[in-house]
Write a structure and sequence with these properties.
Blueprint lengths: L8 H7 L4 H5 L2 E5 L3 E8 L12 H17 L6 E12 L6 E12 L3 E9 L5 E13 L2
Antiparallel strand pairs: 1-2, 2-4, 3-6, 4-5, 5-6
């Protein structure tokens, strides 16, 4: 297990209240020994004018699930913040729900690197992201 503090989906969802995650309908649904999963609806909040999922919304989902994971893998008195996000958009989605699955590649003392796969309701790969997090002292 990679967690320094074992998270629950309910706890993370409570932390997301009144944030961008809440506005976009992002909901954490599953926590495993080495991964987190969150879902996001593909609807008027997350679509671009052409009627498909906005790439920026995929970025928000990727950074949200990866960042949440990162912050449960650090020592007390530290916080993990986004340093770099790289995402490749592979397949368009018009409706339904997508799922972001985050797993760590590297959990260092000063940086972390996470892979986030985004899939549609049938498991097809929609996007893949790499998120680098900086681990810093908490103010």
């Amino acid at each position: 297990m990679i967690w320094k503090t074992v998270p629950t989906a309910d706890e993370i969802n409570q932390r997301c209240k009144n944030t961008l995650c809440d506005h976009l309908g992002i909901e954490f649904t599953e926590i495993g020994d080495d991964y987190l999963i969150a879902t996001m609806p593909v609807d008027r909040r997350t679509n671009q004018p052409m009627g498909i999922l906005h790439g920026g919304a995929s970025c928000v989902l990727a950074e949200t699930v990866g960042s949440a994971g990162a912050n449960y893998c650090i020592e007390k008195g530290k916080v993990a913040v986004g340093l770099d996000l790289n995402i490749n958009h592979i397949k368009a989605v018009q409706s339904g729900k997508i799922k972001g699955i985050a797993r760590a590649f590297h959990l260092g003392k000063m940086t972390q690197v996470w892979e986030i796969k985004i899939v549609n309701e049938t498991g097809q790969l929609i996007a893949v992201a790499r998120l680098t997090m900086a681990v810093i002292a908490k103010d």
